[in-house]
Write a structure and sequence with these properties.
alpha+beta; seven-stranded parallel β-sheet; binds beta-D-galactopyranose; globular; six-stranded antiparallel β-sheet
């Protein structure tokens, strides 16, 4: 007995000692494993449970990451503290006084996240930036040029410089609220603190030297960006939910008649014979001949995208086979397949392949994978794989994207679809996030934030109170990853507001003309990790180069400080050459912060300013677009559909300003994965200081442009 007691005591002492060891443990150099140039990983716990990168099946492109400037570990390791308590892993990272933090997923109100507290939790956005959102990506990038990813599928809380520690070396001054004007409700913090309610996690630090290069490294670590098919980058329209095959065909004919572009059409829940919960079986009354319907559309140059949610109806053919692989709860009265299990994936993909993909369906809109809480499984649910309800919630959107991406890849056909929940590791998925919220300004903030987090977002247009609002929304959606009208409920047509008929058509056709520019921008995302929507905060030219003296701090001489102060969220870069400055209803003028270098008006080629804030009067017919000095924009003639595979098409190269400039034009067949076997090309378009133009093939042979002409836009 005494022996037993002393053994127990000894075991307790060892347990307490090791707990103390872990909980007091600061990171040491040896704990950080270098994964690639400028990427370090710190692992806690075992590696056997699901996490975000595993769910996304992210395969880092190490070769490409290593193809960058040598990088040092960007933070003082002594100042990083990683501790483990019985419930949580707690991570503390240092923050400089003036440091700004961006990212952490799809937020709708703010871009600079310093001072915020986020509980990163997959959810439908509810109108407040609190971390509950469609893509609560636990990756942030600092304006100091480094980034941090927390790879864990739990509800992570991030205190982004909002907490002040007693043991800080850099404590804020204490003021007295009664007497000191400097008193602040939120004293300055010098740390980011992260609580991970998990036993396992990876902390991954990225250093690309600049914020943009760090985001590139993060995207490459997740496998690079997606390369959508060309048709995905044209124009898309989602029909009213209960439309029949004839009505959809009539709609497409009307697009043609009106001269509005359309590349893919979305069918909403009414294509199925049951929805909420779903059957994934065509409704025989509305779509009696699905195969014929899809091929009629294809012959018109229009692809079909189908709405779905993952919850299977008791009367569906898939219900029985999927039941053994379903979670304990219903959502919308349907079972929830556990898509971490290969057999469950196979049951769905076999069915989808046979009934939809094989007859020519081009992709899916995957709805309801985000919440709200009432529209999802509770945290009390369990799943056959042992994945917890919490983990499943954080990764479900990733699992579905991976399953569909993989299926289309196996069929050597590219897809481009929609998803309402995503997370870290998603950059390689050809899916764009959307939601039911509808605030135009907040949609633009989300668009900007998507650029920090390896995700894509569409500020879809549904309907509007006025023609002016319709036009302003349409103009912005044409400068986003998916130019889409979602008329599932409203039935709105692009031409529903006759007072802006011409203006709406002009911008939709401009989107079509810009295809070579947009496609090359996505190729840069795919191969180099460069986000297609680039927040201004990611552009190097945005940060003031010279030190500005305090007395001289003025919003014209040093616009950047103003931008940082005011959380710049109403302008962004679309690809590397164009700044987009959306206009919102009622605006008759607006200001634009032009980064270093000269900037020119896209439409006229006129010089507009350099390294300063400018004010412009708005024009109804134009969304303000600014092109960088030396910027080359490759364009084609406007068509109602993007060029077909192997269709030769004339190319116009617009050149702006006076500076030397070059642009890498990418081309491939735009539909298959043959580019992975080398069927693609990169062509360098350039203009030198003497205005000498050049078009030079750098790599590959697939090139479908002909009759190349130059247009010098600036007099
Ligand atoms: C919503 C979705 C809408 C539309 C609708 C159809 O959940 O956000 O875009 O698809 O379902 O029922």
């Amino acid at each position: 007995m005494t022996k037993l007691k002393s053994t127990i005591r000894l075991l307790c002492t060892v347990a307490t000692f090791s707990f103390l060891l872990i909980s007091c443990n600061n990171t040491t150099t040896s704990n950080w494993e270098q994964e690639a140039n400028g990427v370090w990983k710190y692992s806690i716990g075992s590696n056997d449970k699901i996490d975000l990168l595993k769910a996304a099946k992210a395969i880092p492109n190490i070769e490409k990451i290593n193809d960058s400037e040598p990088a040092e570990f960007p933070l003082d390791k002594e100042k990083i503290h990683i501790t483990k308590t019985d419930k949580n892993i707690i991570v503390r990272l240092p923050l400089e006084d003036e440091e700004q933090i961006y990212g952490l997923g799809l937020h709708f109100k703010s871009v600079n996240q310093r001072g915020k507290i986020y509980n990163l939790h997959v959810d439908h956005y509810g109108g407040t930036d609190n971390g509950r959102t469609h893509a609560p990506v636990p990756f942030y990038v600092s304006n100091q040029g480094y980034g941090v990813l927390i790879n864990s599928a739990s509800y992570i809380t991030v205190y982004v410089g909002s907490s002040v520690r007693v043991d800080s070396d850099n404590k804020p001054t204490v003021y007295d609220r009664n007497t000191d004007k400097e008193w602040e409700a939120q004293p300055k913090s010098d740390v980011i603190e992260i609580v991970i309610p998990d036993e396992n996690a990876e902390i991954i630090v990225f250093n690309g030297g600049t914020p943009l290069n760090t985001v590139r490294k993060y995207n490459l670590y997740c496998g690079g960006g997606c390369l959508p098919p060309k048709w995905g980058l044209g124009f898309t329209y989602r029909t009213h939910t209960l439309y029949t095959a004839e009505q959809v065909i009539a709609e497409i004919n009307e697009f043609e008649k009106q001269g509005f572009p359309i590349d893919f059409i979305g069918l909403e829940p009414g294509w199925m014979n049951r929805s909420y919960p779903c059957s994934y079986e065509w409704d025989e009354t509305r779509f009696p001949e699905p195969e014929e319907f899809v091929s009629t559309l294809l012959n018109k140059g229009v692809r079909t995208n189908l709405w779905m949610n993952p919850y299977i109806a008791p009367k569906a053919k898939l219900y029985g086979p999927m039941l053994p692989f379903a979670g304990t709860h219903y959502v919308w009265n349907g079972i929830i397949p556990d898509y971490t299990i290969d057999k469950a994936r196979k049951i769905f993909t076999d069915f989808y392949e046979k009934n939809q993909l094989d007859i020519g369906v081009s992709g899916l809109k995957i709805d309801e994978v985000d919440g709200f809480d009432n529209w999802l499984w509770p945290d009390a649910a369990t799943f056959p794989s042992g994945t917890s309800a919490e983990q499943m919630r954080q990764v479900y959107g990733l699992l579905l994207q991976d399953m569909i991406t993989d299926l289309y890849h196996k069929n050597n056909t590219r897809t481009y679809g929609l998803i309402r929940a995503s997370n870290a590791g998603a950059s390689r998925f050809p899916f764009v996030i959307y939601n039911d919220y509808y605030n135009h300004k907040d949609f633009i903030t989300a668009l900007i934030n998507s650029g920090f987090s390896g995700i894509l977002w569409t500020p879809e247009a549904r309907q509007s109170d006025t023609g002016e609002e319709w036009l302003r929304r349409m103009q912005a959606v044409c400068f986003s990853p998916m130019a889409m009208i979602n008329a599932w409920s409203s039935g709105t047509k692009p031409w529903s507001y006759p007072e802006v008929y011409d203006e709406v058509k002009t911008v939709a056709l401009l989107r079509m003309q810009l295809l070579p520019y947009i496609y090359s921008t996505f190729a840069d995302y795919h191969f180099n990790g460069t986000p297609p929507i680039r927040p201004m905060q990611l552009t190097e030219e945005f940060y003031a180069q010279e030190e500005v003296k305090e007395g001289e701090l003025d919003d014209t001489k040093n616009p950047y400080k103003l931008a940082l102060k005011s959380d710049l969220k109403d302008q962004y870069m679309f690809g590397e050459n164009i700044i987009v400055a959306p206009i919102f209803t009622g605006d008759t003028s607006r200001q634009i912060i032009l980064p270093k270098g000269k900037w020119y008006d896209f439409y006229s080629g006129d010089y507009l300013g350099e390294n300063e804030i400018i004010h412009i009067e708005t024009k109804l017919e134009e969304i303000p677009l600014f092109v960088k000095d030396g910027g080359i924009i490759p364009m084609i003639k406007s068509g109602l559909h993007v060029p077909k595979k192997n269709e030769k098409i004339a190319l116009e190269l617009r050149y702006y300003g006076k500076a030397e400039g070059s642009f890498l034009l990418y081309d491939d067949d735009g539909e298959t994965f043959d580019y992975e076997k080398g069927d693609y090309s990169w062509t360098k378009l350039s203009v030198d200081a003497q205005n000498k133009k050049d078009v030079k093939r750098m790599e590959g042979n697939y090139f479908n442009y002909m009759d190349i002409s130059w247009k010098f836009m600036t007099e």
